[in-house]
Structure formats: structure tokens, C-alpha cells
Amino acid sequence: MKHWLLWSLLSFPFLADAGGFQINTQGQKTTGMGGSVTGRAMDASVSFYNPGGLSALDSNGFNAGLSFLMPKTSFLGVSGGEENMASQLYTPFYVYGAYKLKEKWSIGLSVNTPFGLGTKWEDNWTGRYVSQEAKLRSLYIQPTLAYKINDKLSIGAGPVFGMGNASLRRGLPVTNSDGSEGEVTLEGKGNGIGFNAGVFFQSGNSSAGISYRSAVEMSIDGGDATFENIPASLINNGTFPQSASFNTSLTLPSVISVGFGHKFTDKLEANLDVNYTGWEVYDSLVFEFPDEPSLNSTQVHNYKNCIAVRVGAQYQYNTRLQLRGGLAFDQSPVEDGYVNPDLPDGDKIIVTGGLSWMLKNGWTSGATLLLEGVKERNEENNVENQFNGTYKSFIYAAGVGLQYRF
User: Fold this and answer.
1) Cα–Cα distance between 62 and 58 in angstroms, integer?
2) Among 55, 67, 133, 178, whose Cα sits 20 to 30 Å from the Cα of 99?
3) Taking the model in full, what pTM does it have?
């Protein structure tokens, strides 16, 4: 039985979720345009997407918003029989601020949740020994300073302070005296530091930008693993501990973005973005158990670097109403042989739409809709757990936001 304990601990999905599930709803205007804003300074969210554009804003202000993500996944095992992931609702949020200190200097603040995921399967489903429930929450805080070199060129940068917590619950193939199956729950917290920098260029009706968001190494010290419904005999003979502590670390990937924007008329503008994400930093995980060194081990994930292409447009319908639309292709870093129910990820086609409505006294409200289709994954030879089958996923999202300019 001890190999089940080792395998359960080493499959802790905090790292898999963060590595392969980046949340791209960090601004309502941005989301409505498919995420294509690296080459356009639209509001205070530029401190996150391209700090260089902070000095190009024509006013001070702040904006805040909330998204509602609803993932749907079904699994078809090799022997047949479809099983559905339980319905879940997740609410990533953001708060941004921008203020011009002097003619050439501006400051900004970005607080958002760029990584996160939640999956929950029925307790008696066929993959319960792989995963029953997984949750990840993250928070990034980034103060930003930008400098306007001249009327066309500006630069900006800021440190990133990252914090996160995650939990996993899964079944164990042992049965207690009352007939209940064993379970293990793993919980951990991590933090790390990185930076974000960008350059922004604007000439006439055209603009361009490049930004670099560094990798952030998240250290997890003193993670807790607790066990329930374990027969006393298996605890007494050392097969399972009642609890265990572990340490590990992960590196969230760097992202390089290049973007272009052009205003075709007084009412119509369009953007193009290309993102390159360095997922290869998540190739393997090293787990250390200070009190039980025999459990120390390494788990291979073998992620690959990938590209996302995003396009979007905005139309000024009248003095109060702006309409937006976007389309994106987002390549998955998860290769065949490493797909699992904690992260049934695949290449994505994303369609978005949104609008803003100007209120009074500098206030503007906004809303977006996002539909994300995930390419079907047929896992035939899983390297880590030999749990094979076909995953079909889709994500629905809606968001609301509020902006104030002064």
C-alpha cells in the first residue's frame, strides 16, 4: 500500500494547475478584445499588460472587476461510460490604479489573480484515486513606475509579489471498518517574487508594445497532508501516517508579449497580440519530506513552451457606448502522456465580446462574455498514473467591471 501514499503525494496538483491554467480575464476591456492589448494603452490595466504604456494614458484613474468562470468537463473511459465533472463557479478579480506624477513620470498598481483552477469530480467516479477535487487561488501585487522618454516612446517596470494556496482531495484504495474509503487531503501555501517590464511606442494612429513578465518561483514550505478513513492497522504498521509535511517549489512561467494597435477611424480600432509563454520551466517537481525522507522523489511533467495569438476590435457606437469583440488561439503546454483529470487541458479557441457604458462624473461600467472551446484530448498512454480516456472541456465566462477617470 505504501506506493499508493507516495503516488498520491507526488501528484499534488498545485503545480500542474498553476503551470497549465493561466487566467486571461484580467480586465474587462482586455477580455472583450480577446486579450490583445499589449500594443494599446486603454486604461489602468496597462500596468499589468504592458507597464510601458502607463505614461501614455491621457488621464488618471482606477478600475476594478470580477469574472465568473464556469468550466465544464466530461470524461469517457476506455471501457465506455461518460462521467461529468461537477459544476463549479470561480471568481478571479482585479484592481488597477494609474496616476501621473509629473509630465514624464507615472505610477501604477496592479492587484489581480492571473493563475487559478478548480476541478471537482463525483466521489465515486472511476478516477477518484487520481483526483476528486482540486483548488488553486493566486494573488499578484505589482507596483509600477513608468517614464515617458518622448512623445512617442515610454518605458515602465515593477516588481511582482506572488502569493498562492491550493488544496487537493483524492481517494485511497483502502476501506475502513465502517465501509468508507480512505481519503488524502493536501494543502499548501506559496509565495515568490518576480518583475514585469514593458516598452510602448505610439505614432499617429498606430501603436506598438512589447512586455516581459518574468518567471516567479513559488516556494511551498510545510505543506500538510492529512488522511481520513484509514484502517488503524495500516497506520500502526507504518503503511500510512496520520499526517505528513512536505516542501517543494514551482516556477510559474515567463511571458513575452508583442502587440500592435491601429485606429482606422475615429470610431474603429483593432489590436493584434502574440504571447510566448516559457512553460518549459515546469518540466519536473522535486518533493522533500523532512520527517520521512524515504518519500523524497521527483515527478516529471515535461511541459513545452507555447504561443497564443489574439486579435480584437473596439467600435465607438455613440458618445456613451463602446462595443468590443475578440478571437484567440491559445496553445496548450500539456503534452500527450501527461493529461490528467486535475488539468484536462488542450489547445483552445476563444471567442469574446464586451461593451462599456459611460456613466456620469467620470464613471464607466463594463461587461464581457467569453466562450472557450478546448480541443478534445484522447489520453492513451499516461506516463504518471496510467489513467487513460477522452476528455472534453468547455469554459464559459462572464465579467463585470467599473472604471473611474479623473
Assistant:
1) 13
2) 67
3) 0.88
